[in-house]
Amino acid sequence: MKNILFYLLLGCIATVGLSACGGEAGNSIANANKAVVNTAEKAINTAGNAANSVANAVSSATAASPESFMKDAAQGGMAEVQLGKLAEQKSKDPEIKKFAQMMVTDHTAAGNDLKALATKKNFTLPTDIGSHKSTYDKLNGLSGADFDKAYVDDMVSDHEEDVEAFQKQADHSTDPEVKAFAAKVLPVVKKHLDAIKAIKAKMK
To answer: Which of 40, 67, 110, 123 is the most buried (most CB within 10 A)?
Structure first.
């Protein structure tokens, strides 16, 4: 788009330049050239901004493939359950322990729904927590206030990512059944994020 407008600009300037015939006319032509340049530059900038806006919109709307989403959701859900059980054992904060119990209950239920969906689609889900293992090992080595802070921080970041992933899948998934699953679980994940943010705010 920018290249086309640039060449049109050059054509307009050349056309006006060829009609020059004297000093006074030359001044008029110079002014006309400036007007053409300013107008073309504005058009180029507008086109560039529009192109960037479209590119950003497409990028933000892009959802992971249904298979990739199901894999990540399975590993993330299992990790939430394992970390929740760990927090139930290690934390001394009643609110964190209550949140951890909610993680175990809600993510176990979501995991069962995901397993049923995967079975229906003949898709094999992972049985391990993948990259979340490093987080589990780190938290397992902490105790007391250090554990509580690290667990809460991890839950906030994890659920922010989860909300984004589930929202994109609920809005843009190419698989209707996966889309429906994401839409069903999304409010639960948002509830978790609100709850853990409230706990973190009280810890400051």
So the answer is: 110
- How confident is the model over 159-170, as pLDDT tens digits? 999 999 999 999
Task: Copy the structure tokens of residue 139.
Answer: 């938290």
Burial 92-102 (b: 16+ CB within 10 A, else e): ebebbbebbeb
Amino acid at 3: N
What is the chain's alpha carbon radius of gyration, rounded to the nearest angstrom? 28
Q: Which CATH class is domain 66-203?
A: mainly alpha
C-alpha 13/C-alpha 30 separation (Å) is: 9
- Which one has a higher pLDDT value, 185 or 4? 185
Instruction: Give the global pTM.
Output: 0.70
Name the residue ranges covered by the structural domains of the chain.
2-61, 66-203
Strands annotated E in 107-203: none
